[in-house]
Amino acid sequence: MTFDNKTIWITGASSGIGKALSIALSKYNCNLIISARRLEALEKVKGMCAHPERVFILGFDLAETNIMQQHAKTAISAFGRVDMLINNGGISQRSPIIETSIDVDRKLMEVDYLGTVALSKALLPHFIANQSGHFVVVSSLMGKFSSPYRSAYCGAKHALHGFFDALRLEHDKDQVRVTLICPGFVNTNIARNALTADGSAQARQDSKTEKGLEVKVFVNKMIKAIKKEKFEAYIGQTETLGVYVKRLSPRLIHWLVKRSAVR
Question: Among the CATH numbers 3.40.50.2300, 3.40.50.720, 3.30.2350.10, 3.40.980.10, which is that of 7-238?
Answer without folding.
Answer: 3.40.50.720
